[in-house]
Predict the 3D structure of the following.
Amino acid sequence: MSKQAAILLAPGFEEAEAFIIIDILNRLHVKVTTVGCHTAREIPSYHNVPVIADVLLADLQNELFDAVVIPGGPEGTVNLAANPLVTTFIRRHDDAGKWIAPICSAAARVLRGHHLLKGRRYTCSGDLHKAVTDGVYSTEDVVEDGNLISGKGLGKSFEFAFQLAWRLTGDTQTADFQAEHIYFDHWRSGER
């Protein structure tokens, strides 16, 4: 059975992070569902690219995915953090031991604001970690702690996505093949 990941999109989400992650998860046979955390399925990205989400978050309150991916974007993460349905969705998945996967500003803005880091190690972009009191900041590009996997930002989206896909599928052969032949040759699943 294929693993499933939900990618939370709110107005102002960082589209490059979201689409790199979507691409890599799909290449490793993870079923991706884009989730609109807004009143409509059309979500404007950080650079005002209109994206049509597969489904609205309001319609998924009883669904459980193997991973919840939270892209960054200054406006996008503020909008996610302000949405109580997002908090409930993330908390439900975290409590079930599913992967919680924020990148860029998402750990500091979305998880911190609702005490969802729970003392775990994480990474994020810029100096946003200075406001975090419920997690332990790391300068690493991709950080795992329990079921939390976080990425520093857009420039590390490939590493973050491959690490998440590998953790979801356990398919080191496909992950290494895709990384070496399509993107770059310094990522290896066995080195994580």
